[in-house]
Amino acid sequence: MADALLSASLQVLFERLASRELAKFIWAQKLSPDLLNELKRKLVVVHKVLNDAEMKQFSDPLVKMWLVQVKDAVYHAEDLLDEIATEALRCEIEASDSQASGTHQAWNWEKVSAWVKAPFANQSMESSVKKMIAKLEKIAEEKEKLGLKEGEGDKLSPRPPTTSLVDESSVVGRDGIKEEMVKWLLSDKENATGNNIDVMSIVGIGGNGKTTLAQLLYNHDTVKQHFHLKAWVCVSSQIFLIEEVTKSILKEIGSETKPDDTLNLLQLKLKERVGNKKFLLVLDDVWDMKPNDWDDLRKPLLTAAEGSKIVVTSRSETAAKIMRAVRTHHLGILSPPESWSLFTKLAFPNGDSRAYPGLEPIGRKIVDKCQGLPLAVKALGSLLYYKAEKREWEDILNSETWHSQTDHEILPSLILSYQHLSPPVKRCFAYCSIFPKDYEFHKEKLILLWMAEGFLHSGQSNRRMEEESSF
To answer: What integer pLDDT is reported at residue 141 of this predicted model?
Structure first.
């Protein structure tokens, strides 16, 4: 996703290279316009193959390394132009101050030139640009060896925290296992651990619906009436942070916490709050947990009333064993009919594929490639809803991304879904990848950050830039 940011950076560079302020500084520095045009041409050559490189990086580590070199060169170019823009602004402010004091003073371009040269102590700006051109030229030559093809710019059109809310209308299958789990939740005692609180785990690969199943259980009408207290906590972090999880549990059940609360104070609060109450806790997306972490987490929960339950979802059965789950459900994939049913709900208006006889057979082949993973089916179904042309569906079906081998568990279907976002959405979405996993976004602040990066451009003179974020 960071490559959409790279593309956005290049777009900003092109705009700066064409700016009037830069033209003035070129004149003041006696920098050859031909040299600057050469820099722009090299950047264009790199930009044209970004889409191809973005797709191939998942299957070719050499392409991934090439992209790292491109980023380094582009960011250095940004730094260079940032220095120029800063000095241009300084000149403008000085000229404005002179006029405000009643003195009319023309810009002293010799002074401007001296200012610009200052940040580049031992090398002139011209030398810096030439070095950058040489670097980009070498990068451009390497693209040929890697077999990267020129495209048409942006023509190709850390998992967020989960919540307990679920859209049951888009859920397919799992009825049998759901009823079995509900029955277990409503039972008073498992009599397996000797404690008042028992653990059930839902284990499976990423994208197979573990979280959705947990959401269905959490929101089941009978289950909601059965428990006095309920808490949904998205763990997600690869390092289990006992204090953060304990704070989240307390917040979920309506207890206040303070930033300076120690783990001891947090546990005492939790122990008092759940004491003698029937308590349901869902720990979603547990990656890794050490035995000591589990022992520390469960101590304050042991005061809960008999019949209290913990439901944990995880990709690792080890976590379930550490938590001494009395029941472990290995969640399988959806059947072909279930996958197709889910896909039609999302990909076709009113869920009716019969109205699109030219698209249905392609859609069935795409669904087969999703291998029964609900998340994959949902991602592509939602994407294809906005594509009505047969060619567009065939592009998805025949994409090389299906054959990608990744080292970070990104499903090919999700990569495809990202690659086909519109350019503005793609850049804004990619920007979010610089934040840590499970970071809580604030809409207004995020929009301001997008604006600062130059990702939002209003095409209408009477429209505020913030409104562009409502894509």
So the answer is: 81
The single-letter DSSP state of residue 460 is: S
Output the CA–CA distances (angstroms, integers) from residue 143 to 47, 60, 69, 291, in the order listed: 11, 13, 11, 49
Backbone φ and ψ of 119, nearest 5°: -70, -15
Q: Helix, strand, or coil here: 419?
A: helix
Burial of 94 (0-12, 13-18, 19+ CB in 10 A): middle
CA angle 135, 141, 146 (to 5 degrees): 120
Terminal alpha carbon distance of the chain: 19
CA distance 347 to 353: 8
Distance separating alpha carbons of residues 76 and 18, to the nearest angstrom: 18
- Element spanning 70, H or E: helix 61-100
Whether this prediction's pTM lies above 0.85 is answered by: no
| Paired residues of 313 in beta bridges | 202
CA torsion sign, 283 to 285 to 291 to 296?
negative
User: For residues 411 and 308, what is the distance between their CA atoms, to the nearest angstrom?
Assistant: 36
DSSP structure class, residue 193: S
Q: Are strands 229-234 and 279-286 parallel, antiparallel or unpaired?
A: parallel
Strands lying side by side in the sheet with 308-314? 229-234, 279-286, 308-314, 197-203, 327-330
Under 8 Å between Cβ of 394 and 351: no
Give dist(CA 39, CA 56) in Å, integer: 26
Q: Output the six-digit token pair for 106.
A: 């023309």
CA–centroid distance for 379 within its chain: 14
Structure tokens at 26: 């070129």
Query: CA angle, corner 445, sides to 442 and 449, nearest 5?
Result: 130
Predicted pLDDT of residue 101: 59
What are 198's strand-pairing partners? Answer: 309
Of the chain, the percentage scoring pLDDT greater than 70 comes to 68
Orientation of helix 263-274 relative to helix 242-252, angle to 10°: 40
Helix (H, G, I), strand (E, B) or coil at 281: strand
Intervals of the chain under pLDDT 50: 1-2, 30, 105, 107, 109, 112, 115-123, 152-158, 191-193, 405-410, 458-463, 465, 468, 470-471
Rounded Cα distance, 30 and 18, in Å: 17
Shortest CA distance to 209 belongs to which of 238, 168, 252, 239?
A: 168
Tens of pLDDT, residue by residue over 247-256, are 999 999 999 8
pLDDT, residue 103, reads: 53
Q: Tokens standing for 453?
A: 């990066």
